[in-house]
Amino acid sequence: MIELHSWPTPNGLKVSIFLEEAGLEHQVFPVNIGTGDQFQPDFLAISPNNRIPAIVDRDPPGGGEPISVFESGAILFYLARKTGQFVPQDPRGTMEVLEWLFWQVGGLGPMAGQNHHFNIYAPEKIPYAIDRYTNETARLYGVLDRRLAGRDYVAGDYSIADMAIYPWIVPHENQKQNLADFPNVQRWFETMKSRPAVIRAYETKETLYPPRKELTDAEKAVLFGGKK
Ligand SMILES: N[C@@H](CCC(=O)N[C@@H](CS)C(=O)NCC(=O)O)C(=O)O
């Protein structure tokens, strides 16, 4: 049994996509990042960076004590190794997937996250920051578009790289990106969106997590207030 400690944000939903694709038995433990659950000692014990997602594998390969994993890219790789799915076995294939997985966790995620922050949440609209992150997101969409030219998926067969990237393309409108400008991304996005496991993963937003509304000022203070 896998425990998923998470919240239905792009980084959390990547792991839900994997669990649905692989049909792995799991249980979701909501970590409400708006009310500060990510700072609770029990959560910090498995996720010391106070960010979702984290998992605990109560039945790890080879037996023994449960294994906990934080950082969404590490979680996806762990689950791929555990199940033997969604990462090829050969070294070239493995590295291609890891390159694009790291591209997402080190590039698209942080840049699109800051884009969202300055376009949507920042109380003060700072044109320099908005332009900087909107342009950088557009550059990354362009990189992805070129990569997807003539390819169905990002790294050969469908892989954890696609699962990591997709949830960050879902909020493209909030990121001020027009998918029509990136036709290969648009085609891939439609393919991803119609996968039954992806649909099921997104349904968990409603079925496994408490209802959410716009962030309140108190929630913004928790999320953006720099609490240690
Ligand atoms: N590099 C981390 C980023 C995780 C992350 O930023 N998670 C956000 C939600 S998408 C979070 O937990 N935010 C809580 C906070 O900022 O306090 C990963 O890929 O897992």
Automatic annotation (TrEMBL):
The keyword Oxidoreductase applies. Residues 1-87 form the GST N-terminal domain. The keyword Oxidoreductase applies. Its EC number is 1.8.4.-. InterPro entries: Glutathione-S-Trfase_C-like, Glutathione-S-Trfase_C_sf, Glutathione_S-Trfase, Glutathione_S-Trfase_N, GST_C, Thioredoxin-like_sf. Coiled coil: none annotated. Residues 90-211 form the GST C-terminal domain. SUPFAM superfamilies: GST C-terminal domain-like, Thioredoxin-like. Keywords: Oxidoreductase. One of its GO terms (molecular function) is oxidoreductase activity. PROSITE patterns: GST_CTER (PS50405), GST_NTER (PS50404). Belongs to the GST superfamily. This is GST-like protein. It comes from Sphingobium subterraneum.
